[in-house]
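Hello,

Our lab assistant flagged a job as stuck in the queue for most of the afternoon. It eventually completed. Since we weren't sure the result was trustworthy after the delay, we are filing this so someone can double-check. Below is the sequence as submitted and the structure that was eventually returned. Let us know if re-running is recommended.
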Amino acid sequence: MAEEESDEEEVPTQEHLQQSEPIAVRRQRREIQKPACFTNMVTYALLVTDEDVPSTYPEAIRSTETSI
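-- returned structure --
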């Protein structure tokens, strides 16, 4: 009967409290930023679509740049 289960909650000891603290208490959290490699993608896409490049075959045939 000495090993009966009890309804009492386990009281955290000093050692348990120290382990639950974060390891790097003094370090500041890193500032998360968006990747810089995609910043000019919209500008590039707009420059590409502004060119007078024909998008279909009939447009290419009617283009003034074609030589007969």
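-- support follow-up --
The delay was a queue issue, not a problem with the job. The result is valid. DSSP finds three helices and no strands in the chain. Helices lie at 14-20, 41-50, 57-62.
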